[in-house]
# Entry
Amino acid sequence: MQSAVRAKLWDLLAALPIASWFGLVAYSALLELARATDWAQAPFERATQFANAGFALIMIALFALRPAAIAQPRDWRAIAICLLGALAPMTIVLLPRGAASPALLTFSNGLVLAATLASIVIVLWLGRAFSILPQARMLVTSGPYRVVRHPLYLAEFVALFGLALQFALPWSLLLWIFAVAAQFPRMHFEEGALRRGFPAYDDYAARTARLLPGLY
# Structure
């Protein structure tokens, strides 16, 4: 019992920096919503902020509620690569805003909103199995995970593409490509942890595409 409590405390400590980041995301989105007076003029943008806040709060709750991992990364390289992958998408927002037309901005916000709502559905389905680092907690093979092995990454790629359209082009698209490429090593290490934790993972991987059914 004490070892389980100790493992959970270490898990919470390790998740604290990323959970704090999600807390900042939620706070910023809710603050902007509270100050907004243009709901009728920018419905997609406001709905996206609301969805972002909801997603961030769900992530914080999952960090607190998830069990300790049963399989951990084997070396520091796996941890470093996965942290790089987690941080890479944030580089896009370091760029200045682009001069997007109203039509492009509406399209961009629509993509981000749809992908964020999909991410909420996926992460709720994944539940307490969620992890940033390559760890194994539970093997989820139903719902969105019955279609592809990494639906959350797919939704993230779409959301980031929509976000990139709002920043200085073409640099934002180059950073989007970098952010997408940084996720493939994460997938590799995550699948390794799941294989070590769950012997049934090989059968699941054999019948399920990684990202795109019939293609990859």
